[in-house]
Amino acid sequence: AILYIGVFDKIKNVATLIEACKMAREQNPRLTLNLVGGGGACEQQITKQIAQNADWIKFHGPVYDKQKLMQICRENAVFAMISKSETFGLVYLEALTQGLPVIYTDGQGFSGVMPDLNVSLAVNPKSAADVAEKLKTALANRKSMVNDIRKVDFDEFCWPNKAQKWLSVIK
Fold it and tell me: Quick one: which of 164, 136, 161, 156 has its CA closest to 31?
C-alpha cells in the first residue's frame, strides 16, 4: 500500500499521485492508496476521485492521534508526496522513522538529504508515468530500502542536537 499524508491542494499534487497509482495498478492490481488529511482547494476533486476508486483508495481523513497515525504508517509499504514545490517536508522523515521508503519531488526540499542511502526515490511531479514507475521500483526494492532506512541516524535531525551544533559553531 502507498501512503500520502497532507492537505489536498494544487501544490501537493494528490490528483497526479492517484493517477500514478491507477497506472501502477495495471501491473499490480493489489496496490492500494491510503490518504490521510484533507482540506485544501482540491478537496472536492480528490473526494470525487476517491469515490470513483473506492475499491482501492481508502480515505482516513485528518488523523491527529499520534498512535493511530503511527499504526497507519506501519500498515503501508511506501510513503509518497509529490509536491510541485516543497520546503523541507518533515513528513518524509516521519515516514522514514516508521520504516517507509519515500517518493519525493526531484530538486525540492527533501532532495539530497540522504544521498548515500537507498531510502527514497525522486520523481518528476508533472509525470504520472514517472511516479508510477518509481512506485513500482520502490515496492520491488522495498526490502533493501528498509535495510538502508535502519542505517539512518535520526538523531542528526533532532532539534536539540541541531541547536547544539549551531551553538558550537557560533561559539
Answer: 136
Give the pLDDT confidence of 76-122 residue by residue, as tens digits: 999 999 999 887 778 888 999 999 999 999 988 777 777 778 899 99
Residue-wise pLDDT tens digits, 16-39: 999 999 999 999 999 999 999 999
Cell of 21: 497509482
CB–CB of 101/110 below 8 Å? no
Residues 6+ apart with CB under 8 A from 28: 136, 139
The identity of residue 24, as a single letter, is: A
Residue from 59, 67, 55, 54 nearest 14 by CA? 59
Q: Which residues pair with 34 in a beta bridge?
A: 3, 58
User: Which residues sit opposite 120 in a β-bridge?
Assistant: 102
